[in-house]
Design a protein that fits this description.
The chain is an alpha/beta fold. It contains 14 helices and five strands. A hairpin with a 5-residue loop joins strand 2 and strand 3. The longest helix is centred in the middle third of the chain and has 19 residues.
Length: 326
């Protein structure tokens, strides 16, 4: 601004005493600025942008990146096993006596260190990864064979409770908006049985009030009506009502249902669990449920009208490989 002011005042023939008083320039400085402006125009007298001062030196940033990759917070005296922005800030303050003003600086440090943001998954205490690998090896060929048989439906199955308790998920809103969703005071729930056809992605869901061997046998009868002919390769978990005599009697009497049980404490292996999650996201999250039965019907209608293309054991049907919707 002072450089431009000096150029303008010289053009208006103001005395140097006044120019010096306003801009702080001496005579030679003022005339030098005017010459640069005449040669280069406005860019010649514009101030060059200053680079933001880095709180950490290049060596320190490189050292920090190596530490993040090689060590966990627990290795450095903290009680946590995974890095967060808060822990990173504490470590930088402790190690380099530097405090960043915002989390953005820590995000950039993680990015420079080739870190990505993840929400931790949950794993059951009884989960046995070795048993899961062995289960996959033992059953993959059978499932692959069944997927190639035109007269066999490969179904992964599961049950869930649909509750009127409000569940929430993140949403985008204008700045300054703070929504609130009403929560039911009295808890109600209903059960749903779901079967996902791995070949076609078609879901078949049934509403029930309970989960027991009697209901399981009744639902299997309804499932057989959906698939009246051919074989069914049914993959479900080890729930007690699946092993109950009523459900087992139906399977034996049918004679054309083969059962594979999922390994214990490994719901992530069941595509049906992902179907439940997708259904909740579309129909019940951020909703105040006033009528549990109406909510159940809406949930089931969405499931039965939607195709869910989840792979199973890393396998796809030939139709889905070619992009053909069955």
């Amino acid at each position: 601004m002072k450089r431009a002011q000096a150029v303008l005042m010289l053009a208006d023939n103001h005395p140097m005493s006044l120019i010096g008083q306003i801009t702080g320039f001496g005579r030679s400085q003022a005339f030098n600025r005017r010459k640069i402006y005449e040669d280069k125009g406005l860019p010649g007298i514009q101030a060059k942008p200053r680079k933001a001062k880095r709180l950490l030196s290049k060596r320190q940033r490189r050292e920090l990146a190596e530490t993040l990759k090689a060590k966990t917070p627990a290795d450095l005296g903290f009680e946590q096993d995974y890095w967060t922005t808060g822990l990173l800030g504490c470590y930088i303050d402790k190690q380099y006596k530097v405090q960043c003003k915002s989390k953005t600086s820590y995000y950039l440090i993680f990015k420079d260190s080739k870190f990505t943001f993840h929400k931790p998954g949950r794993i059951y205490q009884r989960h046995d990864e070795q048993a899961v690998r062995e289960w996959k090896t033992a059953n993959k060929d059978r499932v692959k064979q069944a997927l190639g048989q035109t007269d066999t439906a490969v179904l992964t199955a599961g049950e869930m409770h649909l509750s009127n308790q409000t569940t929430v998920q993140k949403i985008w809103l204008p700045s300054g908006s703070y929504p609130k969703i009403e929560v039911a005071g009295k808890r109600q729930s209903r059960s749903i049985y779901g079967f996902l056809n791995i070949k076609t992605g078609q879901e078949t869901a049934f509403k029930t009030n309970w989960q027991n061997m009697y209901v399981a046998a009744e639902v299997l009868g309804k499932l057989r009506a959906v698939y009246p002919t051919g074989k069914i390769l049914l993959v479900w978990d080890k729930a007690p009502w699946h092993k109950g005599c009523k459900a087992q009697d139906f399977i034996k009497q049918d004679g054309n249902i083969e059962v594979i049980e999922f390994p214990g404490a490994a719901p992530e292996e069941n595509p049906q669990e992902h179907v439940w999650k997708a259904g909740r996201s579309q129909t019940t999250h951020n909703q105040f449920i006033t009528d549990i039965d109406q909510a159940k019907d809406s949930f089931i209608n969405y499931l039965n009208a939607t195709t869910f293309d989840y792979d199973f054991l890393g396998l796809k049907s030939e139709a889905r490989k070619t992009g053909v919707r069955v």
